[in-house]
Amino acid sequence: MHSEQYFLIRKSYINHYYKIFINPFFSLSSIYLSIYLSIYLSIYLSIYLSISSVQCTEEEYQQFCDKDVRKELTILSDVNFNSWSLDSTQKVTYVLHMGWDIFKNVRLDMNNFIRFVLTVRKNYRNVPYHNWTHAFSVAHSIHNFYISNLISLSLSLSLSLSLSLSL
């Protein structure tokens, strides 16, 4: 067999092999690639949308920027305080006051703290028990314990701050 004939036969064999075995894989791989890209884009978009919807809005932030939370709220020191009597906005104001009261010895940026509290409030779901009202009630209890020195005397500053932030 001449080398030219050999190469022609080999070339036809390679073309045949390519058409039968390789080409379907390329078409399948392009289909898989398009599926992968669509899944990747949908995941990316869902993560982006969830991150942007988790943070507090600028309007919510501006609503609390001008308020002076440092005024004395004597109602917070009452153990029989009814948290169900407050609306969500009043609870944020009280939480900001409690935070300022606890962190007054620490350099706390109030703007970041306002955004933090509003973001926490936004992320609580409207379920029967573990909701924003429950979080406020627990924070109020910890605040009363802290103010009455039941916690602050027995814990170091870093531990009491950790306990306060864990709510």
UniProtKB/TrEMBL annotation:
Keywords: Hydrolase, Membrane, Metal-binding, Transmembrane, Transmembrane helix. SUPFAM superfamilies: HD-domain/PDEase-like (SSF109604). Gene3D superfamilies: 3'5'-cyclic nucleotide phosphodiesterase, catalytic domain. GO terms for biological process: signal transduction. InterPro entries: PDEase_catalytic_dom, PDEase_catalytic_dom_sf. GO terms for molecular function: 3',5'-cyclic-GMP phosphodiesterase activity; metal ion binding. Residues 54-167 form the PDEase domain. Its EC number is 3.1.4.17, 3.1.4.35. This is PDE10. It comes from Acanthosepion pharaonis.
